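Case study 2.
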Amino acid sequence: MQNNNDAENNTVSNNEGDLEGAPIITGLMAYGMSGRIFHAPFLTTNPGFKFKAVVERHEKKAVARYPDLVSYSTIDELLNDDEIELVVVNTPNNTHFDFTIKALNAGKHVLLEKPAAATSAEVKIMFDLARKVNRHLLIYQNRRWDSGFLLVKDIIESGRLGKLIEVHFRFDRYKSALSPKVFKETAATPANGLVYDLGPHLIDNIICLFGKPLSFKKTTGIYREGSEVVDYFNYHLSYPNQLNVYLTSCLLIAEALPGFVVHGTLGSFIKDRNDVQELQLDAEMLPTEPGYGIEPEGTEGKLVIMDINNQKNIEWIKPPKGNYNGLFNDIYHTIRNNALYPVTEEHVAWQLELLEK
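Prediction:
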């Protein structure tokens, strides 16, 4: 069971590595956008996994693309498949807790989509049960393997900016229309709105870098016509040594601001959010193709360092390849070799504290 208490251990793996031993036989609970884009392409190309089955209640779209796949009509059928070791819970947010409990009780390891749950109390129950049944509960935080985040992480850890003063991470979109999926737009549905949609990505990025904040202030708003759920949020997180971190997201930003801005005593770093993986996967590019995860020319990050004469030295830095396979490799090594999974139980608990307040 993954429950390491070392809060400093937030290393992100991005190498392919040798995946020795038998592949992990895996089942997917849903084949919507998440299943089609963020899971199936990796489960079918990563040698550490055998994508055996999926739940498709209506149209059998997954089987049309992956003919060898077993398509079950219900989650119970999937969980009753004794050959399946790992189940991906990628169903709507408000079902995460119940389906994870059900999968753990069925003896399955669980890869759980963000948000892990609606409350930190639910997170504790899930991890406690995972320990009890000796199974791994692993939270899917793929944005640790975005190209832009990998670059800003490298810049911060290099120390080139000096003592950090201010960090801004943003995730902006323009989607004025309400989602046709009613459960996403209903205030009474647990884990609803933008806070629980894009909030987990931004909060997890910052926890990966800096750990738990000393304190925080959260501001939310509802701006779309007819909306019941939050479509704007801003967090101000306070860290030791006077570091201030701001996380912002909104569904009505016509001109997106840079996704990553970091200011330190020696310089600044600015980078747009240009990771290409989601677009490539949506266009059915496989993660094994040569151009996968590589940002195009002109999307470099801007590093500005002040010299001893207070003159600017500007450097444009190309981001590394984004690669969500790093996450799947870590899942493999955690299940097969009991290695430390980088998204720890403590990280998830801290995230939920910020989400639910």
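The two ends are 28 Å apart (CA to CA).
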